[in-house]
Amino acid sequence: QGRGENQIASFSNYLKSLWIMDGLCYKRWVFAFRKPAVEYVHFTGLIYDRLAWFLYNLDSWDFAQNALESSNSCFEYEGDLEGLASNFSLMGDMMLAQENRLGAAAYYRKADSLYGLMPDDDTLIHFMTLSHQSLKRTAEGKREQAKELLYEGLKTVNMPWMRRQFHLGLGFIYYDELA
Question: The pTM is what?
């Protein structure tokens, strides 16, 4: 199978999974007689999240946004702050990809506020905070402050994918300064 056929098969399987989960969460019942199990709601949120990533990579912004909002409803139901923060980060990424820096900064602020409710010693939280604060500073026109945050991240974070994101952020700022 080619890449396109694999994408279609993946998308189809996610939709089938969502149909099953909707049944388990009583969404297809006229009168739901009980609340859905939290693990079913969580899994439903994850399916919507995966669909959003799929749609995001196809530049289907509106559909990805709708999938993330559905995912957020599930994560709110179960109180999953990390899932919500991750989704708000992706929403910010989508805004940034559409060159809407102020919209991106708003979603990144939401993500940061949720990450702030979690323990401070997590490397991921440190990474996300520096990334989002740098994007916020860039959107505000404070490029030097944004670069300082990204360089701080390069000094303090050793995970390759995180370092790559800091380098991409720096590259974006320097490229934007030349334009």
Answer: 0.63
